[in-house]
Amino acid sequence: MTLFEQVSEDIKKSMLAKDKVALDALRGVKKEFLEAKTAKGSDGELHDDQALKILQKLVKQRKESAQMYTDAHRPELAEEELAQVKVIERYLPKQMSEEELTVELKKIIEQTGATSAKDIGKVMGVATKQLAGKADGKMISQIVKQLLQ
Questions:
Q1: How far apart are the first and last CA of the chain?
Q2: How far apart are CA 83 and CA 66, in angstroms?
Q3: By CB neighbour count within 10 A (0-12 exposed, 13-18 middle, 19+ buried), where does 140 fall?
Q4: pTM of this prediction?
Q5: Under a CB-based contact definition with an 8 Å cutoff, are residues 126 and 112 in contact?
Q6: Residue-wise over 51-75: b if at least 16 C-beta within 10 A, else e?
Q7: Which of 25, 51, 53, 102 would you call most buried, defined as having the most Cβ atoms within 10 angstroms of its Cβ?
Q8: What is the mean pLDDT of each run of 10 residues along the chain (149 residues)?
């Protein structure tokens, strides 16, 4: 079952369970999936790797929105966004811990032969491809910078 099909099934389950938070989050996800399927240049299919990128983007957007709501002293709206993040994250692969990520990044630095901060771009290129969906890009960048200083 593809991610698109799984989300569609879970929308039905959320409706039956009257789970408003999950329903809102999943409808937003399905909307993005449908837009990607019908986008210009698309083959009409949504592959799971594309779906994962969309899910990551949605999680990032909602976390940023929650932060803005928190800064604007609107905790009830921030809570709503974070609740939707939890629903969407169920479809993402398990995220690596900081320790696991550091170990993987050390291996990548060794593979690429990076030795200084000048090589950050080379390491980031490999790391973002290998660790796609498993770790946040911001965290990858921070750890690479620390390791190459």
A1: 44
A2: 10
A3: buried
A4: 0.74
A5: yes
A6: bbebbbebbeebeebbeebeeeeee
A7: 25
A8: 91 95 94 90 82 90 95 95 94 85 88 82 86 80 86
Q: Contact, 109 vs 123, CB < 8 A?
A: yes
Q: Whole-angstrom Cα distance, residue 20 to residue 136?
A: 28
Given a contact cutoff of 8 angstroms between Cβ atoms, the answer to whether 87 and 22 are in contact is yes
DSSP-derived letter for residue 132 is: T
Distance CA 14, CA 20 (A): 7
Q: Report in angstroms the alpha-carbon separations of 122 from 127, 130, 134, 139.
A: 9, 13, 19, 16
At position 6, the amino acid (one-letter code) is Q
Amino acid at 114: A
**Closest-CA residue to 3 (of 23, 24, 32):** 32
For residue 53, the one-letter residue type is K
